[in-house]
Amino acid sequence: MLKCRRSFMSLCIAVAITLSPASSANTPEMDLPDIGTAAAGTLTIDQELNYGDAYMRMLRASKPIINDPVLNEYIQSLGHKLVANANDVKTPFSFFMIRDRDINAFAFFGGHVALHSGLFLHANSESELASVIAHEIAHVTQRHLARSMEDEARRSPATIAALAGSLLLAIAAPQAGVAAMTATTAGAMQSSINYTRSNEEEADRFGMATLAKAGFEVQAMPRFFSRLAEQYRYASTPPAMLLTHPLPEARITDSRLRAQHYSPVKPGLSIEYHLAKARIVARYAGIDSEAALDWYARKLKKAPEVLVSTLEYGQALVYLDTNQLDKAEPILLKLLKQDANNNFYLDALSDLFLAQQKPKKAIQMLEKALGKKPDNPVLTVNYANALIENRQYEEAIPLLQHYTHDYPDDMNGWQLLAKASAEQGISDQELAARGELFALQANWGKAIQYYTKASQLVELGSLKQARYDARIDELLVLRDKFQSLQ
Known about the structure:
The protein is an all-alpha fold. Helix content is 69%, strand content 3%.
């Protein structure tokens, strides 16, 4: 029974995908059946955005989300390149990674798309990774969650709001959420699975159109799916992706036939993709340093020349993380000399200089890099961290205040601001920054408590107090809105 509940919760989260109206196909390849898209009769866009924000806060509190500036920059760049070529995009998109070796990806309300780090371990090219992301984007633009909820509401006495609230409960408290869904939806599990399968084929087709327009290899989608299906054909416990994204032979065949409608494209090797993969093997694959070094060594034996630098970068990260700084330094210096503007290399060298207790070298390097790429988030976060390590708190704090204003959902910025404020003895600002961290994880009680303490520390009637009190009012509204969704 517990296994069934977990499977159903995974299914519910995986189909948590919605927002813009269904796209209309304009190309011969997109002759799709009309499944029905009366999604406007389910939840309003504002409601969907509220649910998406709530789900995201719950995930931050419950899942090992990877807050890695370099990887985040890469997947955001790749994701938005695809979004720019998708049909009928009417809402913002956000892409993030979860540290999990299992192969999976899912999307949900508000245009949020999650990728498991394990995807990088199984995708052999950027086009294969992009095919998974394009598939999830299609789920969102086709409003599959809203349509699934609408279909469920027709068969049961449940309202759309009850279904959406149960989904939130499933993330917040799995047993309560599944119980709520089971109580309000007759035959929910099998009907949801059947509906999801039809959505999967539709998402494949729209995803292929997006891949083609974005300049990726469309054939990468059926190739990746076929390889996964073959690899886990006889597995007693298939990966989560095959449970929430079933790959029956009919779906693979359909994707192959669809791909044949597109002209073959062979995009060049993406160095950024392979650098991201090397970084994940070093830090987020759940393997020890010896296993990671063995992986790089095996890959280097047959790697084309163009990819040697990416594997050497991975080796340098392992050396850096195991404090073998004398081995990491020559590799990273050589790589940066080859590509002076590469954020993967700049980030790693910054970490190296800090580990060597040479923050001034990191500051000088990053100042030069920021001169070429002003306000770049990866460089800015590294620069602020180096300033803090060099005890230049008065310079770091305004930089981080500006950064957290521009990127309020990045926990890295708030953590660094809290640290710099604490070192500088600005207790109210430290409390406020920590309050924002709690708010990002839906811990409203702690967030309000910290802001209340911050307000009490500053001068009565001051501008700071007014700002803190205004934020407390905003947090109270957000808390009430969040609780009402459940």
